[in-house]
Design brief:
121 residues; alpha+beta; Translation Initiation Factor Eif1; five-stranded mixed sheet; 3 helices; 24% helix; elongated
Length: 121
């Protein structure tokens, strides 16, 4: 049987055969550049994104670039939820509204006196 040069022996019952140790996962896996979410610029514009990843296929409208304290964000969240008739939450300083309501959210934010625009896909 010909010898294969590029194979890596995993297991052998031959006591004279040496099996090379495995490399750690960090050495095996390359870190892909750009895997982190880009930071939104701090220009006072509220950007409304649509996200589906990590949510079981459900769409969520995410508002980033909000200024102010937690209480003002909670007030804005409550107003948006009541106007849109949907659920939502405040997580890590961003507002998440269930469903794809980007156009309506931007219109409501402009009506409330905020600078807002649709962003992402």
């Amino acid at each position: 049987m010909p010898t294969i040069r590029n194979s890596r022996l995993v297991y052998s019952t031959d006591p004279d055969t040496e099996v090379a140790p495995r490399r750690p996962k960090s050495a095996r896996r390359r870190q892909k550049a750009g895997h982190t979410r880009p930071k939104s610029p701090n220009d006072g514009v509220i950007r409304v994104f649509l996200e589906r990843k990590g949510r079981g296929g459900k769409s969520v409208s995410v508002l980033r670039g909000l200024s102010g304290d937690v209480s003002s964000k909670k007030e804005l969240l409550k107003a948006l939820k009541s106007q849109l008739g949907t659920g939502g939450s405040l997580k890590d300083g961003t507002i998440e509204i269930q469903g794809d309501h980007r156009d309506r959210i931007v219109a409501l934010l402009v009506k409330l006196g905020h600078k807002a625009k649709k962003a992402g896909g």
